[in-house]
Design brief:
The complex is a heterodimer of chains A (272) and B (235).
Chain A: H1 20-34, H2 40-47, H3 51-64, E1 67-69, E2 76-78, H4 80-92, H5 95-110, E3 113-120, E4 123-130, H6 152-160, H7 163-175, H8 193-202, E5 205-207, E6 215-223, E7 229-238, H9 249-265
Antiparallel strand pairs in A: 1-2, 3-4, 3-7, 5-6, 6-7
Helix pairs in contact in A: 1-2, 2-3, 5-9, 6-8
Chain B: H1 14-28, H2 35-42, H3 46-58, E1 62-65, E2 70-73, H4 76-86, H5 91-105, E3 108-115, E4 118-125, E5 140-141, H6 147-154, H7 163-175, E6 178-181, E7 188-196, E8 202-211, H8 212-217, H9 219-231
Antiparallel strand pairs in B: 1-2, 3-4, 3-8, 4-5, 6-7, 7-8
Classes of the chains: A alpha+beta (272), B alpha+beta (235).
Chain lengths: 272, 235
């Protein structure tokens, strides 16, 4: 067929038809997004294509600007049009909406509440709450501020943001006369430092049956296109229902969801 | 599979040309598009466009949204952007320098490139001293809200400026520094310096955004730090 479309049938009727040569081409392209620039010979070997086929794909991808040849090294990498496509996508989606989609999937899968938070001027601030099937008696709604040193979410931000940014807010919260404008208790900044080191090592923040007895929480970080901490995803539920073990289902699914959101936001290389 | 064009040495794959055209149509659209509109724009039949979009979707280049199933670009394009940026000489070093400068000053430091006709942020280290202001990678700006856009204008990118703006841009180019008070917001100021490519064209603009009073109080040292950070792009 002139357009290269696959013929229907062949025992996979329900599989939607694509264009085989486009898929071969995109696989070739993904070799260049996953690693270092490659020579034409390396590309053809890794893609399992003949030299002639690889050359034909390279001609079209270079015409489109999706692949560019470095004149010095002679290697092929992703070209200018790849940047234009990514920039167009970045300008077109709402990170909060992407995060909410994944948070709701997590809440449905685990049956527990999942909240999203960002670092605000007065500490970790809830931007969305997604309910699972289990309802807990704890108030959190968009706008709720968590304690920096006394909640799983607050400690995640405290561990991963610069101390100069987080410390003053933690002290301001601790000095506020009750009732504070935040949720949770306020252990001293020095008291929590060992805990923050552990969070930096494990990448997650956990509180068991505390600060509210009977309620546990696990928080994981989301990074954005610039590799910077963008928000926290927090799982909150009854202590007897949430498994806080690192290898347990709750932690694993939460970490996977946070990684999935980071990926969709464009976090790909490690933070600088 | 391979379609021969005029020169036998320039044999390409026609389906790749078509797939790239569909992606360009989606990149230029302001919102998600219906299949029939994409096909009409590309000058192909809907059924044919559908087959291409299935393959592009399978590889994460496009996605369908909502009950109407409108098409828009998807997350793998962000992987393309990272790989393209990694190919730019000095970009990784510039990113690290921008990150460091933000950490040292508490101010926001951004790298802008000229993409699809506008200064576009491709890296943003948000400073914690900036409240009620948020800048993200992907943000497109112009001279009304961005010192980086002024630098690109000074280096001839975009439509020609009016006489007053042209004089201002020429002064920025001569000084190698854009100082913009009240940008991007009335209570903020921005300093921006050029990162020049080997051919003398403007490769990127590196900018520092902070509270107006703080920038005014230490403008010279901040400009020096910004220039030093821009230098890292040249190894």
């Amino acid at each position: 067929m002139a357009d290269g479309a696959e013929l229907p049938g062949s025992g996979r009727e329900r599989e939607p038809r694509g264009v085989q040569t486009v898929e071969t081409g995109l696989s070739l392209l993904s070799l260049l997004t996953e690693g270092e620039p490659l020579t034409a010979a390396e590309l053809s070997r890794r893609a399992g294509l003949s030299k002639g086929q690889t050359h034909a794909y390279l001609v079209s991808f270079q015409t489109a600007g999706l692949i560019a040849r470095n004149p010095e090294s002679g290697r092929y990498g992703i070209g200018r049009f790849g940047l234009e496509l990514g920039a167009a996508h970045l300008a077109g989606f709402d990170p909060q909406q992407v995060a909410s989609e994944e948070a709701q999937k997590l809440a449905d899968s685990l049956g527990q509440r999942v909240s999203l938070s960002v670092w605000g001027s007065y500490g970790p601030t809830v931007t969305a709450v997604h309910e699972g099937s289990e309802r807990i008696r704890i108030n959190a709604r968009p706008g709720t501020v968590y304690s920096v040193t006394g909640t799983a979410t607050g400690r995640l931000f405290a561990a991963l943001l610069p101390a100069g940014q987080v410390g003053p807010v933690a002290r301001a919260q601790a000095q506020e006369p009750p009732p504070g404008r935040y949720v949770g208790q306020c252990p001293g900044w020095d008291e929590v430092q060992d805990g923050l080191t552990a969070i930096r090592q494990s990448g997650i923040s956990v509180t068991y049956s505390w600060p509210q007895p009977g309620i546990s929480a696990i928080a994981a970080p989301v990074r954005n296109f610039s590799g910077r901490l963008d928000m926290a995803v927090t799982l909150i539920g009854a202590a007897e229902e949430i498994d806080i073990a690192i290898e347990g289902r709750h932690v694993q699914e939460l970490v996977w969801a946070a990684a999935r959101i980071s990926h969709r936001l464009g976090c790909c290389p490690p933070p600088p | 599979m391979q379609q021969q064009s005029s020169s036998p040495r320039q044999r390409g794959v026609q389906s790749i040309d078509t797939a790239a055209r569909l992606m360009r149509i989606l990149a230029e659209a302001d919102e998600p598009m219906m299949l029939r509109d994409i096909a009409a724009r590309a000058g192909i039949k809907s059924a044919q466009a559908h087959a291409y979009l299935i393959s592009l979707r399978k590889h994460g280049m496009v996605q369908q949204l909502g009950t109407a199933g409108r098409y828009t670009l998807a997350e793998e394009t962000l992987r393309l952007a990272h790989a393209a940026l990694a190919e730019m000489p000095g970009h990784d070093a510039l990113k690290r320098a921008a990150d460091r400068l933000s950490a040292e000053t508490g101010l926001t430091v951004a790298i802008d490139l000229w993409i699809r006709g506008a200064a576009t942020a491709v890296f943003v280290a948000e400073g914690h001293l900036l409240q009620a202001f948020s800048l993200h990678a992907g943000t497109r700006s112009d001279r009304s809200n961005s010192a980086s856009a002024w630098l690109f204008a000074a280096w001839g990118c975009g439509p020609p400026a009016g006489p007053a703006a042209a004089t201002q841009a020429a002064a920025m180019r001569a000084e190698g520094l854009a100082r913009c008070e009240g940008l991007p917001l009335p209570h903020l100021s921005t300093l921006a310096v050029p990162v020049l490519a080997a051919d003398g064209l403007l490769a990127a603009a590196l900018s520092l955004i902070g509270p107006a009073a703080q920038i005014a109080a230490s403008r010279a040292p901040l400009a020096d730090a910004l220039l030093a950070a821009a230098e890292t792009a040249h190894g």
